[in-house]
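Figure 2 data, in text form.
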Amino acid sequence: MKLKRILAALALTGAMVSASAQEAEVNPWFIQGSLGASYSVGGGAGFGKMLSPAGQIAFGKQFNPYLSARLAVGGWRGRYTANSMTTGFFHYNIGVDGIWNISQTASLNPERPVDVNFMLGVGYDRSFARPASSLLVRTGLIMDVRLNKAFDFNVECQVNGVSDRWNSRNDHSFDSFVNLLVGVTYKFGTGYSCPTCINPELIEVNERVNELREEVIKEVIVHDTIEVVKEVPMKGEDRVGMSSHVVFQLAKTNVQPSQEMNVIAIADYLKSHPGSYATVVGYADKGTGSREINLRLAEERANVVADMLVNKYGIARDRLKVSSMHNQDTQQPFSVNDWNRVVIMTAYDK
């Protein structure tokens, strides 16, 4: 019967951690709006005369930290020179672009303030005033400046290739125009949610896990295994009182509201058992990020949880033993990579 309860507790814990990890790694839909200038290449006049306004609205999806795609509608004005006169014309284009995040590919870090992306796309361009349409092929670079979780500031440089009909000048095999755009990206579902709201389902799961923990023998996480600790301690050994954990989002070190109840559980135990102490051990998953980043994340996560126990819940610092992994290859408490973004707290009775 106890074995069934242990398995049930582990299953519920796994479901909770998995749900949190999946929530953290949701790759969002996004919308972009940009304005800037367009330069019509080879128009036969000076640089200033070939400049026109340009704009773009795009809607897309991030598939993973490295790749995205978008549907973009843009255009505005193009220019050409005929009979020594520079003429402007209105046009629009619709295209599909693939976007490769070069910065994240080189080193995965969702918290990086600036990312550089390579863009390649195809589309259709048409003039409003005259029956001139063309297949459009373009490439370029996009710089994303992270403003917060939900918004990015963008600077985008595009080189667009179109057919020779685009500017009504039959002077070479194809025409081109260069756009320089600045704008903002909003990522749906990533920000401006209620910071104090807690998912009722996560509350229920957490409560059920804690109930099962109280009913069964206590657990201690040891590397990739779960060691069962006897209720009666060996002579001279400290007895495990309870174990809890805090799950973190990818590359994050802040405790989510839905996880704070697990910190409270350890704090309550320490307060009700004055002679007890707790270990606070931080981890990071080895499947993402570099070794240096992961060791830093693990240490910061442990310190954040320890600081919360001390500053928010009044636990004396000398009752905590704070540490973190020093070898990400061997010190991964869970076999599922994404579950290892965690701080494990264990309370001991002397």
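Caption note: The helical segments are 2-24, 102-106, 200-215, 260-272, 291-311.
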